[in-house]
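Technical note accompanying the year-one report. For the benefit of new consortium partners, we illustrate the data format agreed upon in the data management plan: each record pairs a sequence with a structure-token string. No post-processing was applied to the example shown here.
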Amino acid sequence: MMEKVAIVILNWNGAAMLERFLPNVLRHSQDEAVVYVADNASTDNSLLLLEERFPEVRVLRLDRNWGFAGGYNRALAQIEAEYYVLLNSDVEVTAHWLQPLVQFMDSHPDVAACQPKLLSERNHAAFEYAGACGGYLDRYGYPFCRGRIFSDVENDEGQYDTVAQVMWATGACMLVRAADYRVVGGLDERFFAHCEEIDLCWRMALQGRKIYCVPQSAVYHVGGGTLPKENPMKTYLNFRNNLTMLYKNLPSSSLRRVMLVRCLLDYVAALQFWLSGHRADSKAVVKARRDFRQWRSSYREERERLQQGRVVEHVEGIYGFSLLWRYHALRRRVFSRLVE
């Protein structure tokens, strides 16, 4: 029998996070969903912990570390449910957090995915970097959120408590309709990690499907658990995957112009990293651009298929301005001012 909601937590050597946050997930979700942990071949005591402490959790053992995208694709392929919840292992859920999300999806069949309000586990008064209150893109592919612009994170004062259509929902806590996930082929496994949820939402949006933030649900996220913000590998994946996402999904009318501007902006970013002493991050940006050029041709057929099959020309939540200009030159550092 098909389950209504399957909460799927992807784990790789995250026993400490599971021990800390899984009891809370079970306490506040078990009556409304089946809880799974998909394990990316952990080498710590994660599986022993699950067996001894959480026998009610359904464990999916993967044969190696497939990353965020590959791990979820393999796990979700084994689960029959109407809705999947992709939930990070470092998320503290709240009482009745699931109900507003499911009710919203049930009453809005044109919506493919939604997210709750994402707050900081370390500071409950502030939004959390990874998704805040729903995500957007500027014209050059730079992501930002209601409540977070670059590293500037706002306090939550109820200013974004309205349900809103967004461009992308955070992979830290995303409820996605299983049918939509399957239609677009799931997450792009070649990304491994970073930007994959934005790419997924973009592909669903090209099919005329909608993405929302439902802030009547709120959860608290630790963030940075797998790769810290300063890690050059994170810089590399963010730049490489962001360029790949743009190449796949941008319409032909704007692709060349956007990619030319991004080339300039990326090398400016590499220079800034170098001059500020972050030499490894500078090299990561250059390597990301080189590797993107090398594998771009392997995405040509997918790009053609996506463009031929697109149902809408304009995707809601992609703004026509430059985030860098408004942030640095105009000093608009909060979402409400940024989008004026």
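Partners are asked to follow this layout when depositing records. The chain has twelve helices and 13 strands.
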